[in-house]
Specification:
Layout (H helix, E strand, L loop, with lengths): L3 E6 L5 H10 L4 E6 L11 H19 L3 E4 L2 H14 L5 E2 L5 H7 L4 E6 L1 H5 L1 H10 L4 E6 L3 H9 L6 H8 L5 E2 L2 E2 L2 E4 L8 H7 L5 E3 L2 H15 L12 E4 L6 H9 L8 E2 L4 H7 L1
Parallel strand pairs: 1-2, 1-3, 2-11, 3-4, 5-6, 5-9, 9-10, 11-12
Antiparallel strand pairs: 7-8
Helix pairs in contact: 1-10, 2-3, 2-12
The structure holds D-glutamic acid.
Length: 279
């Protein structure tokens, strides 16, 4: 039986992780879940986000019974994983957290930036990662309120002015005498969707760290070692489920390019949309 895996995000960012999963484990049957009715997660209070993700997960798990769940969202993973694991101890959850450890190991100047949502930047979890793995580095946390939305617009085929992106990433580029930032952690899964624009607009070349491949490897490890599911025959087209609005034609084409089946998009009605208003 093909492993059934949820790949979950607030919107389209998790597609960057889905691509790597499909490349590494073509036998995995993915259900891509975009909680676009709750987007953007970066602006939610911690209590509202825990409630929101818990609510969406309760409904989806009851309906689809996945073998494993990838939370392809830093903003959610840095907060809600302990809650989800306690609620569903039988399901392995694979999180996506800022790749601070590899950045600290890779950086030569020991000046690294972490580009993320305001939520991820504010988390104790992120501060702990820095203390544990990057105490020897100058770590610059950059919270962007706009980039995830710009990435969504880009995926929907909208033109994004260079200046808008340049302004959001400019805080990542720091100099200190002769030294300057040489590694930038893409700590929101939406950001790799804009990677070619980031690289083009960067004031100097840096290494951009996208954890997607490492997440796919972690999922493969969990499937093999914890669930005894080694690689089988390639799975059929994947499905995507949106909690808010049905994707327009440009986005649908982008989903198709990622192997997500044409007629399998559906909407999940959620009373959580009401909870969000008060959250
Ligand atoms: N893609 C999400 C992340 O990795 C966040 C985007 C948002 O909803 O603010 O953090």
């Amino acid at each position: 039986m093909a492993p059934k895996v949820f790949v979950f995000d607030s919107g389209l960012g998790g597609l960057t992780v889905l691509s790597e999963i499909v490349r590494l484990r073509p036998d995995v049957q993915c259900l891509y879940v975009a909680d676009d009715a709750g987007f953007p997660y970066g602006r939610l209070s911690e209590a509202a986000l825990v409630a929101r993700v818990g609510d969406v997960m309760d409904r989806l798990i009851a309906r689809f019974a996945p073998d494993a769940i990838v939370i392809a969202c830093n903003t959610a993973s840095t907060l809600v994983l302990p809650h989800l694991r306690a609620a569903y101890p039988q399901i392995p959850f694979i999180g996506t957290v800022p790749a601070i450890k590899p950045a600290a190991a890779l950086s030569r100047s020991k000046m690294i930036s972490v580009l993320a949502t305001p939520g991820t930047v504010a988390r104790d979890y992120t501060r702990d990662l820095i203390r544990t793995y990057a105490a020897h580095c100058a770590v610059n946390l950059v919270g962007s309120t706009r980039l995830a939305g710009l990435a969504e617009a880009f995926m929907n085929g909208e033109e994004i002015a260079d200046g808008e992106i340049a302004q959001e990433i400019s805080g990542c580029f720091v100099t200190d005498g002769q030294a300057r930032t040489d590694c930038i952690v893409l700590a929101c899964t939406h950001y790799p969707l804009l990677l070619s624009e980031f690289a083009r607009l960067a004031p100097w070349p840096v290494t951009w760290i996208d954890p997607a491949e490492a997440i796919a490897r972690r999922l493969d490890h969990v499937l093999r070692e914890e669930l005894g599911m080694s690689e089988g025959a390639a799975a059929g087209p994947h499905r995507a489920l949106f909690t808010g609005s049905r994707p327009g034609p440009t986005l649908e084409a982008a989903l198709l390019r990622r192997g997500i089946g044409e007629n399998l998009l559906e909407l999940l009605p959620l009373h959580a949309a009401d909870a969000l208003k008060s959250g």
